């Protein structure tokens, strides 16, 4: 701090109201102190805004300290205490259930976040993954074993990416079962997690096979629902498999509540359920079963009510937002070999690191892959598929589509799950002996540069 | 910012070296600017230290912004990039495997944290939960179904408490199987997670039945290993069930690595494995099987080498750090009724809230319970048990201890898992019809005050 400013001489000035203001001869240390405090205040404010913009959720548990700290502008909501101000939770008309309509959800969420500023996000969007399975044991003797492993796979992905995960095995609406059960779950999850910007439904038979890839959320900033699909198959071919409803990303907002209400109204809870089945069967020449299903319902809504819903639904096909297992599982060994070849050229990629440091290594790898021929998504490239979905395999019931054998489904799942697990286990020092084997071996130092 | 300080008059001073320093007549805005900047710098430094003390992990993903931000004193490690400075990971002699010794681990961890200050913690300890099961399907037809549900239970607990969870189903050492498999897993996890202060091993057949309770970590500040146990049963009765090794908390430090090496050396990987089995059988009159097991080994180490290890091992019995299911599952309905009675008296406890706000409600409930007669842990109280462990039920193999029937194990697990799920589902608007039922019902507003 500079010293040496001379004390200011007293002066006075006349204001428009005739009041005399007198500049007293305060010591310069006091004025320096005020300037210092002003700098401190502005810096804290700027730092708080900037770091909130950059940071993920910082949840502080006040049990970490024995005294209570009151909130102030510079310390955003250090407690996870619930402030007394009323939120939508205190409104009896607000319901978690899919059959009850809910309005002004965007404002309700915003008000909740205002009272819980630690969850404000400021540019970084929060994603809640939701998945689940039936309440009781699977009919397929190895069904629950497979569900357990697919669940572990999701837990691994979410841990690596700071995504919260909710696995539900309760039927939240007595007649909305099988594939319809996801809609009541997503509705309840949106209300339970107002801090979540997106809910990401992932079927129990879908696995993450690129553990580094992250959703390009900014790509979807003008949309509210993302599914893997192809517009020409929807609007021209009119196929019930023109998109896949087993993996979707849906924004936590009023549009989504309204959409899900319309979507669910084509399901078993609706008095028109049978009629919808007939309408879908008539519309989609390739649909083979009679009952209304959630996927056909979604395509139907796009076809018949494009103006109402279509502009907010993103049909993603640039990467495996959801990948068909049959075109993937045979290519996994080749991918491993190609990735290893890249890593042999770049010491930085072979460097061991903490699991929490994965983001940096994933981006480094991504940068090196970008220069490689063929390192693209899709059936003609060797880029790791983001999600591999075992559609038609029905691991829980065992009633797989007749075009696959139970053996090919089982083998495909082993490959995909071990392929993913290798990416995870690497940070724990191990890998599978081969993609069909449950056995693992310690990784040599500087893997994969040695043998 | 105060204005009005007069420009300082030029002055000069002679330094001891005879150099003239001239105070130039800079404008006072410049000197104010320096004072302002000084205030800003000090404020940022203080805020950084204080908020690091209070905050959990703040992991920032630089893909959130299009430009790269360099680290500075005021912005602690905004990237999860791995700095180029060498860490223990770059040392080929450092191994993830249990058979390789590792020294100076405390210093190695400290150095890693110094290079990754976002994970410094500063008072708030990080816990990594580790659990797992065998690579292949369970022999018991409903075994994997039960493992799936116990796994969901752990995921629910960890999500509510900001604890990371690693589920492993690979055998990391070819002969360290069954209950010995946990030691190689914990060793690998410690190295993969240097940011974790504690590793919390929880058996696959243990469930969290109090979703609010948090480990009183400060209670264990002078210890490195916590198990549920009773000193008199260890040192006087000399029973192999004087403690339970299915749930333990172990500090991520050199002591623990050394201890686990000695512990694991009584397992199948040791040439002395059979001898240890004989020694344990001779020592513990109530041990019925011949093979060396990890729990007897732990009691053995306490008995024979108390001076070497005992002072750092905490035998916890003040709460159900690990609870014996048989003395718990019959009391769960009564607990539910007692907790509901307390909640009927306190509107604040019935208030619906986001799942992320649970901490505050748990503490509020805890405060009200403290005044209630009988709201204590243990077989004579109705406090929710923290952990309910189905020792002897063997859900995966189905080879349950003959003193229990398969039915009582199954029923007990349904009760405990539904009891826990009710605490979770409450924030999603539902509860189970009863503790034996997979069916759920929507909660009425202001539950449990209405019927």
TrEMBL record, chains A, B:
**InterPro entries for this protein:** Glyco_trans_34, Nucleotide-diphossugar_trans
Q: Where in the cell is it found?
A: Golgi apparatus membrane
Region of interest (Disordered), ranges: 1-20
Could you list this entry's UniProt keywords, alphabetically sorted. Answer: Glycoprotein, Glycosyltransferase, Golgi apparatus, Membrane, Signal-anchor, Transferase, Transmembrane, Transmembrane helix
This protein's record includes keyword Magnesium: no
Q: Which Gene3D superfamilies match?
A: Spore Coat Polysaccharide Biosynthesis Protein SpsA, Chain A (3.90.550.10)
**Superkingdom as given in the UniProt entry:** Eukaryota
According to the record, the segments passing through the membrane are 29-50
- For bias kind Polar residues, which ranges apply? 1-15
Output the Gene Ontology cellular-component terms. endosome; Golgi membrane; trans-Golgi network
Q: How does it sit in the membrane?
A: Single-pass type II membrane protein
**What is a single molecular function from GO for this protein?**
galactosyltransferase activity
Principal localisation: Golgi
Family named by the database record: Belongs to the glycosyltransferase 34 family.
Specify the protein name.
Answer: Glycosyltransferase 7
Q: Write down the species.
A: Ensete ventricosum (Abyssinian banana)
């Amino acid at each position: 701090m500079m010293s040496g400013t001379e004390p200011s001489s007293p002066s006075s000035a006349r204001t428009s109201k005739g009041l005399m203001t007198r500049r007293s001869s305060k010591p310069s240390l006091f004025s320096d102190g005020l300037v210092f405090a002003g700098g401190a205040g502005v810096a804290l404010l700027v730092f708080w805004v900037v770091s909130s913009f950059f940071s993920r959720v910082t949840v502080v548990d006040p049990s970490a300290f024995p005294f209570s700290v009151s909130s102030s502008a510079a310390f955003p909501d250090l407690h996870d205490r619930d402030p007394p101000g009323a939120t939508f939770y205190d409104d009896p008309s607000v319901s978690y259930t899919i059959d009850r309509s809910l309005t002004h959800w965007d404002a309700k969420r915003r008000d909740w976040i205002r009272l819980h500023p630690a969850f404000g996000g400021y540019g970084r969007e929060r994603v809640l993954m939701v998945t689940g399975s039936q309440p009781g044991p699977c009919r397929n003797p190895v069904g629950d074993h497979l569900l357990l492993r697919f669940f572990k796979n999701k837990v691994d992905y979410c841990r690596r990416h700071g995504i919260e995960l909710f696995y539900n095995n309760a039927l939240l609406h007595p007649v909305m079962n099988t594939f319809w059960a996801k809609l009541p779950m997503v509705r309840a999850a949106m209300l339970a997690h107002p801090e979540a910007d997106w809910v990401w439904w992932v079927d129990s038979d879908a696995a993450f096979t690129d553990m580094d890839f992250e959703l390009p959320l900014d790509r979807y900033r003008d949309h509210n629902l993302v599914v893997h699909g192809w517009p020409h198959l929807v609007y021209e071919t009119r196929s019930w498999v023109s998109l896949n409803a087993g993996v979707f990303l849906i924004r936590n907002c009023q549009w989504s509540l309204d959409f899900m209400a319309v979507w669910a109204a084509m399901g078993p809870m609706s008095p028109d359920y049978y009629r919808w089945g007939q309408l879908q069967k008539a519309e989609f020449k390739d649909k083979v079963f009679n009952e209304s299903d959630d996927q056909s319902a979604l395509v139907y809504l796009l076809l018949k009510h494009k103006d109402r819903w279509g502009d907010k639904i993103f049909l993603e096909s640039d990467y495996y937002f959801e990948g068909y297992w049959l075109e993937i599982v045979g290519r996994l060994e080749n991918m491993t070999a190609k990735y290893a070849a890249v890593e042999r050229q770049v010491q930085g990629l072979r460097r061991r690191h903490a699991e929490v440091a994965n983001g940096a290594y994933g981006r480094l790898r991504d940068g090196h892959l970008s220069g490689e021929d063929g390192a693209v998504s899709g059936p003609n490239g060797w880029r790791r598929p983001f999600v591999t979905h075992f559609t038609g395999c029905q691991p829980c019931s065992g009633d797989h589509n007749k075009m696959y054998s139970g053996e090919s489904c089982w083998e495909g799942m082993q490959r995909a799950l071990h392929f993913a697990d290798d990416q995870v286990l690497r940070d724990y020092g191990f890998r599978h002996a081969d993609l069909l084997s449950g056995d693992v071996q310690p990784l040599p130092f500087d893997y994969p540069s040695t043998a």
